[in-house]
Each structure stands twice: as C-alpha cells, then as structure tokens.
Design goal:
The protein is an alpha+beta fold. It has four helices and six strands; from the N terminus they run H-H-H-E-E-H-E-E-E-E.
Length: about 190
C-alpha cells in the first residue's frame, strides 16, 4: 500500500471511532421509551399494510398511506414475501412491495398482525447506531368471488435501527433518538 492509501485507511478508522464516540449511550429510561416507539412504529406498519391491501381502499388513499408507511423505513430496506406454494422467499424494495400488495388478484384481502415483540435487545454497533429485531406474525387471507381462498401465517423479523439525530427549532439545535425500520425477513410460513 502506498502512503496515501494508508493515510486514507487511518482517517476512515479514526472517523468511525470518533463518530461512534459522539453517539451517547442510551439510558435505561430512554431505552424503554425507544422500545415503545419502535413497537408503535411496527404496529403502525401493520395498520398501513392492512389498509393498502384492502380492496375497498380507494387508490388515492392507498397511495397516501404508502407515502406515510415509507417514512417508517431506512433507505434501501426490503420486505420478504413468501407463499405456501413455493419454498422461495422473494425480497422487494418497500415501495414495490406496497404496489404489488395493492395489485393482488383477489376480491378481498385481510391482513392481520399479532404477537408483536422484541426478540433481540438493542445492541450498539461500531458506527454508534443501535440495532434490534422485532418479530411479528402476519395472517394473510385472500378471497375471490369464485370461492377461491388462500390463507397463511408468516413469522417475520423486522430490523430496527436507532440513531441519534439533530434538528433545529427556533435557532436551537436539539438532539433526539430516531427509530427507523429496516429489512423485514420471512422466517416461517405455514397454513392458516
């Protein structure tokens, strides 16, 4: 390696160490509030998915809800989709997942989320962010007027990112912890 490559590598390591040190530790009280916020965001996502998938939701309303739901996610997040008819799990960008959900070829769609809980505690990462995992069970029911019915229950693991951010209010810089959702991985799919 030449001298400039070594300098760049040292600078990157130093920047990561300083960046991680700039992120304060989360107090137990703050952690409890962050956990509640993360669980609330996951519950909101479940409501949004139910509205978007519902065939009675007007197109304009579904698109408005998609925009709201996208605000919950970190950039580049993906959603896993499974089916009883295939062992493969497909992953889609979040917007594409929502658009596909709206376009499902059923006359009625019901999506319910239940048993939402943390399965891994928040763990501090080298970059200063905290990462945890929330699990949720999703019951999907799709029905057609001709009598066709599909029902499955899927266990999904949702990555949760917590990081310190700043905003300016009336000239004052205010720090706050923000919670964003990441990838949603399918871990199990079974009938009903």
């Amino acid at each position: 390696m030449n001298r400039s490559s070594i300098f760049i590598a040292i600078f990157i390591v130093f920047s990561l160490v300083i960046g991680a040190q700039a992120q304060p530790e989360i107090s137990p009280e703050r952690k409890q509030a962050i956990d509640s916020l993360a669980l609330e965001k996951v519950k909101d996502l479940g409501k949004y998915i139910s509205i978007i998938g519902n065939k009675n939701t007007p197109f304009s309303e579904a698109n408005r809800v998609i925009d709201r739901a996208l605000e919950l996610f970190s950039e580049g997040s993906q959603m896993g989709v499974s089916s009883l008819s295939s062992p493969d799990i497909q992953y889609y960008g979040i917007r594409e997942y929502f658009q596909r959900l709206m376009a499902l070829n059923y006359d009625r769609v019901t999506i319910e989320w239940f048993n939402i809980e943390y399965i891994s505690d928040l763990v501090r990462q080298p970059d200063g962010r905290y990462v945890g995992v929330i699990t949720v069970y999703q019951r999907f029911t799709g029905e057609s007027d001709d009598g066709m019915k599909y029902v499955d229950t899927t266990k999904k693991d949702i990555t949760v990112y917590v990081e310190r951010k700043q905003t300016q209010i009336q000239g004052r810089v205010i720090g706050f912890w923000d919670v964003l959702l990441g990838d949603i991985r399918v871990t199990e799919t079974k009938p009903g």
